[in-house]
Write a structure and sequence with these properties.
Blueprint (H helix, E strand, L loop, with lengths): L2 H4 L1 H18 L1 H8 L2 E2 L2 E2 H16 L13 H30 L6 H15 L5 H9 L4 H29 L6 H60 L1 H6 L2 H27 L4 H12 L3 H12 L4 H33 L1
Antiparallel strand pairs: 1-2
Helix pairs in contact: 2-3, 2-9, 2-14, 4-9, 5-6, 5-8, 5-11, 5-12, 6-13, 6-14, 7-8, 7-12, 8-9, 8-12, 9-13, 11-12, 11-14, 12-14, 13-14
Length: about 350
Amino acid sequence: MGIFERYLSVWVSLCIMIGVGLGLLQPQVFQAIASLEVAHVNIVVAVFIWVMIYPMMLQIDFSAVKDIGKNSQGLLLTIVINWLIKPFTMAALGWLFFNFLFAEWVDPASAQEYIAGMILLGVAPCTAMVFVWSQLTKGDPNYTLVQVSVNDVIMIFAFAPISAFLLGVSDIQVPWQTLLVSVLLYVLLPLIAGVLTRQWLNKRRGELGINQFLAKLKPWSVIGLLATVVLLFGFQANTIVSEPQIIVLIAIPLLLQTYGIFYLTFIAAKRLKLPHNIAAPACLIGTSNFFELAVAVAISLFGLHSGAALATVVGVLVEVPVMLSLVAFLNNRVNQQATQ
């Protein structure tokens, strides 16, 4: 894991402080950026998020889908957790905490937006960072590729309807058109661009060319992520300074969801007697989130200043330290078994 991935929470925390500081000192700059919208899509944020997502999509090799039949139990476990369980437990936790347990500290309108942000995180299973977690746990890289590729295919068709259903159940009105445009803009088009670029590079220079191109793009992906965080917290500066406890309140159900989904998947993988190199990626892919997509859709649906956008960024803040703790847990388990 590179220095950026290892200390992602540190960089995000620094960008949060920078964003809040700039938002308080130069609110007119952020107001001007917020006004640059076309069809509810902020142009500046859209560019930053594309810079983040495109290199991740370039890593996906959809030719791996032909191996879908190998170790089908592990793949089935991933699909069930990601699409039949995780979105609904996230929605349930958001509803429980912000409509009941935290109701006296959060106004109803803000509570609905925080729930919406959590739902969008829950319906977006991770793509790129899964390769990092799989590598750290000595997971099967080819099988991880199959898992991620199949998940991306499902995401094209399932993200919008599941999101709309859960947001509707939570009494949050969402325009279908905006949600479908978000999927097109932030999932389908980057996927197509990544596939076409990968095919072109592979024909000209092979796998080495693909890796070299990804290495050149990586710094820009980092810049896109951190710039988006600065912008989001700049837009939210006044709310954060006046109500800093909101970050903690959002983080609590997100932490419970992350650890809960992990242990549910871990127990299921153990019952299925999956080998470690299959079980570890299966556990981690269902636990982590495609936060870049969640952030983009939250902004498109609810706006840059919304609680939904804030909730998705808090997901970035808590994810990496939590995932590293789970990687350590899995590695300790396999080491213990090896010494027995």
